[in-house]
Amino acid sequence: MVRGRPSEMNRVAIAAWCLFDWASSAWPTVVMSFVFAAYVTREVAPNSDVGTAWWGTGTAVAGVVIALVSPVVGAIADRAGPRKPWVAGFLVVTVAMAAALFTIRPEPGYLLQAVILAGIGGAAFEIGQVFYNAMLADVAPRHMLGRVSGWAWATGYAGGLACLGTCLGLLVLPAQPLLPLDPETAEPVRATGIVVAVWFAVFALPFLLLTPDRPARDQPFGRTAREGVAQLRRSLADLRRRYRRIAHFLIARMIYTDGLNTLFAFGGVYAAGTFDMGFRDILMFGIAMNVAAGIGAFGFAWVDDWLGSKRTIVISLFGLMLFGGAALLVRTPTGLYVAGCALGTFVGPVQAASRSLMSRITPDAVRTEMFGLYAMSGKITAFAGPAVVGWVTYLAGSQRAGMATLLGFFLVGLALLWPLKPAVDMGEPKPA
């Protein structure tokens, strides 16, 4: 095989693996970000403050479940062998929850049901990602980990936006939806859950059918589970010694991911409060940032394999701080659009390169388990960013001051990541 070019079989597996990102991104984009979250908080809840509190609580509880469950099921999967059955199982749960969202009528009595369905679906989605991410090193040649991770992440942004465009164009925005749905009971909006369910299920099929997987171990599941939990205990006990570099990276990622997650959560709030943007303007701003993030993930995919995963993350964090600062200084919506899109260009690369770096430094025998810890590191302190932004905004009486704290998360994450020296097994080029 020529270096840098996968075989024909690998091309099929890589394409199918990337397409899963296209399929799965429908859930976070349509349900958790743009459509259903807004519907629940604005039309199902008695008022937006109550809706935001309930939705935020449900998301927080789901985050705790993800943090606690992901390492355990990851460790069990490493002992069991195949990863795709786990992906398929959590996919089924996510799809079922998405379809069930159609039952949520615009009445306060449905608020708890909406939060429970979204919470279960969100937890299942994130836990399923543990097994999907762990398969990167099985699908992509080592010298292409950065490109494949970046291509998949860019494909995910495109898939999420394509599903969103389908939902908006056919159901939500037209005065007369394509299907005979009743706007009085918000059926066009509720039907977006069914679109997400079908989208996810259909486009995930190539991944389930065409990507390679590990063979199953011939032993009872109970024994496999006990071995997996025991292995997780040993790994946690040895994390600072045997897996010290992984622990170091996960701590750094935990901090800068808090900044990223809070940026996603408060970006629309900042645009509305500081620049007086309406719903449609915020929607277009969010779409523009997602397009920029997808372009960045795709373009930096080559940088990841050329300069290394760690250096790609470092460059991206510098970019986030630079253009994040610009977004805090601009005074017009146009300026925010420009700064926001430039900022978005570095959001995709830092996420994609973090996944490829984790794949590079993790031993195969515990890869799914470690990706469980990777998922945990993205959730365990997820309360910190929103809390800091909220309280600083309140005490300073300024959204700009609150959002400025995100630069601190990126700076601390960068400072923690910096001491990790470039090495071949971290995806960095050999020193000259």
UniProtKB/TrEMBL annotation:
InterPro entries with a match to the protein in the record: Atg22-like, ATG22/LtaA_families, MFS_dom, MFS_trans_sf
Bilayer disposition of the protein: Multi-pass membrane protein
GO molecular function (one): transmembrane transporter activity
Gene3D superfamilies per record: MFS general substrate transporter like domains
Pfam families: ATG22
Keyword Membrane: yes
Domain Major facilitator superfamily (MFS) profile as annotated: residue spans: 1-425
Membrane-spanning segments: 53-74, 86-104, 110-131, 151-171, 191-210, 250-270, 282-303, 312-330, 336-353, 373-395, 401-420
Record bears the keyword Membrane: yes
A cellular component annotation (GO) from this entry: endomembrane system
Main location: membrane
This protein's UniProt keywords: Membrane, Transmembrane, Transmembrane helix, Transport
Highest taxon, organism lineage: Bacteria
Localization (cell): Endomembrane system
The name this protein goes by in its record: MFS transporter, UMF1 family
Species, as recorded: Limimonas halophila
